[in-house]
Amino acid sequence: MAVPEIPIPGARGYPMVGLGTFTIFGQRGAGDEVEQAVKTAIDIGYRSIDCAWVYSNEESVGRGIKAKIDDGTVKREDLFITTKLWDTCHRPAIVRESCEKSLKALGCGYIDLYLMHWPFGFKEGDDLFPKDENGKVLFSDHDFVDTYKAMEPLVADGLVKALGLSNFNHKQVDRVLQIAKVPVTNMQIEIHPYLSNKKLIDYCRSKGITITAYAPLGNPTRTWAGTDEPVVFDEPKLQAIAKAKGKTVAQVCLRFLIQRNINVIPKSVTPSRIKENFQIFDFELSEEEMKTIWSLDRNLRFYGESIKRREEISNKTPLQHQQQNTRCKNTKDEYSTRRKRDTRHVNIKHKRLHINRRDQWATGADFGRPFVTQVANGVVILDCVRTTLSLLQLPRGLEERTIVV
Ligand SMILES: NC(=O)c1ccc[n+]([C@@H]2O[C@H](COP(=O)([O-])OP(=O)(O)OC[C@H]3O[C@@H](n4cnc5c(N)ncnc54)[C@H](OP(=O)(O)O)[C@@H]3O)[C@@H](O)[C@H]2O)c1
C-alpha cells in the first residue's frame, strides 16, 4: 500500500505513518524487541522510523534496518529515518559528535530528519538525566538558538538531509526562525484526541513547518500515568466511532490525525499492533466524526513533565507522595485567591493549569506558590520550572529573566 507523504525540503517525502521507538522509562521494547519491531514494520510497509539518542536503542534500530536492506526488502533511500539531538548535547561544539554517534549506531549513512529534542539542555556528560545530590535536574545554559546554528552545517556536510524541532513553543520556534539559514522543516509534538495542539500547529504551518504527532494514541502504557488519568482508549465516543467503522480505537486516533494532515509515529513492538496501526488508509472519518473527536480536546498532556515526574517517583516513598499531594491542593487554593488580585498571576495560573492533572499537583507543589513569588521577583527556580517553561508558552520576557539557582 502506498503511504501518502509530506514534502520535506532537502529530504525524500516523509511517509505519514512511521514506527515510534521510544522505549525508556520501563516501557516494553528494549534491544532485540525493537530490532524485531523494525523488521516487522518494514515488512508490513513502514518506511519511516522515529528514533532518538535518548531512547538508547539506536543500535537495535540500526540492526533491524540493516537486516531489511541486506535481505533486499528495501534500499536505504526508500527509508525516512528521524532521530533527535539529546538535551545533554546542546553545547554547539559537541553537536556534530552527537549526530555522528547516532549515525554510527543507526548505521544508515545519513539521517533524513534531525530534530532538536527539547528547547533546553541538560548538564553535559554520559548521564542522560543528570541530577544533583538532592535529585534535582541539572540543566545547562546553552541557548537552543546556538545549538540550532551548530546543527545547520550537518546538512551541508551530508550527515543530515533536513532539520526540525521538537517540543518547542511558538516563541521558541520564532527565535530559531529568526536566525535559521537551514529551514526548520518539521516540528514533532504531542498530539492525540485529548490534546489538539491546534494553535501551535497553525502557527508552525503559517511558517511552512510540517507537523508530526508523537504519542498519537495517548501512550496507553506509559509507566508514569496517574491512576485517575483518562485513557484515550477508554473514551466511549472513540469506541463508538471505531465500532461504526469496523476499526479499532487506535486506528481511529491515527486516522483523525492523518485527516488533519499530521504525520503519526505510533510506537509498538507487538506485531499485530504494528500491522493494525498501518491499516489506516482504507477508511475515512466523516465530518461529523471528526467534529466529535475534536470535541474531546481538553489540552491534556501526557508528556513534558515525565522527566521530573520520574524523578519524583524514584525519590519518594508513597507517604511523601501523599503529603505532597495534600500540600498541592493548598497551593491550588492559593492560586485561586491570587487570581482575583493579579492578572499576571492569573495568566501563569492558567498556563499551569492547562498541563495539570491531579497527579501532577505533586509537581505543582514544588513550584506552586514559590514559583509565583519568584516570577513576581523576576527569578524562577529553573530546575523545577524550565521543563514546564518550554511547554507553558510563557512570554519570552519571562524566560529571559530566569536565573539558574
Ligand atoms: N519528541 C518527543 O519528545 C517524543 C516524546 C514521546 C514520544 N516520541 C516518539 O513518538 C512515538 C510514539 O509515542 P509514544 O510511544 O509515547 O506513544 P503511543 O505511540 O501513543 O503509544 C505507544 C504505546 O501504545 C501501545 N500500542 C501501540 N499500538 C497499539 C494498538 N494498536 N492497540 C493498543 N495498544 C497499542 C504500545 O504498546 P506495545 O509496544 O507493547 O505494543 C506502546 O506502549 C515514540 O515511540 C517516539 O518515537 C517523541
Automatic annotation (TrEMBL):
The keyword Oxidoreductase applies. Residues 315-328 have a biased composition (Polar residues). GO terms for molecular function: oxidoreductase activity. It holds the Pfam family Aldo_ket_red. PROSITE patterns: ALDOKETO_REDUCTASE_1, ALDOKETO_REDUCTASE_2, ALDOKETO_REDUCTASE_3. Residues 17-296 form the NADP-dependent oxidoreductase domain. The keyword NADP applies. Keywords: NADP, Oxidoreductase. Residues 314-342 are annotated as: Disordered. It comes from the Eukaryota. Belongs to the aldo/keto reductase family. This is NADP-dependent oxidoreductase domain-containing protein.
